[in-house]
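Before the break, one more example. Copy the sequence into your notebook; we will annotate it together after we see the structure.
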Amino acid sequence: MTTALVTGATAGIGREFAIQLAARGHDLVIVARDVERLEELAVELRRERGVQVEVLPADLADREAVARVAARVGDAQAPVDILVNNAGFGMRTSFLENDLAAEEGMFDVLCRAVLVLSHSAGRAMKARGHGRIINVSSVASFIASGTYSAAKSWVTVFSEGLAGELAGSGVTVTALCPGFVRTEFHERAQIRDDAFPDFLWLDAPSLVRDCLEDVDQGKVISVPSLTYKAMTTALKVVPRRFVRSGGVVTRHRPPPR
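Here is what the structure looks like once it is written out:
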């Protein structure tokens, strides 16, 4: 039996990863801040999928908590075969309007935690000769729009670099780059479903299913839907000045997931 560890597992994309990985027969280690919601999800997955579920509460903005999760990821006695770095959140206001501590917290969750956990997983998986690392990035990584966009750009490029380093080892790395997804991520940012056209919105089950198929094929970048594939392809070829927005993400222009 293989084991998958999912961060940010209690809602949205992370929850869907947990559900679909359990449906594939993987045991789980689920990570999030909310212990009660973790326990509720664990009970649901054990009952409905018959898998083992380990609950690991952690705030990934806290370095000691990240170290605990990294130790679990690298535990040779209880191997983690699939790591899903999904935990994250966005800011509703621009960089200079935000408190620096809040920006540092977002950086720690979106970048540092991904780096630390991928380092632990990459070493352990390479030693065993197999494994999968999935880093949830965003189509925002292809544009210049504030620190969320910058952080996700780091995740995408980091994933590409790590994939190259692990090539031929039996370990793959995939950066998932979704656009707008109907999850709590956007509900917390107070983004209405009608804030953007329907064709820009994705649903988490289809998104995760498509991503896992890309992972099975060893793809390094997974972009969901023909719409976002076309958009990201165009962004790669247009002059860079056309993808800049002044670095501002406001409540009227929230980041994609």
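The two ends are 31 Å apart (CA to CA). The chain has a mean pLDDT of 88. Try to locate both features in your own notes.
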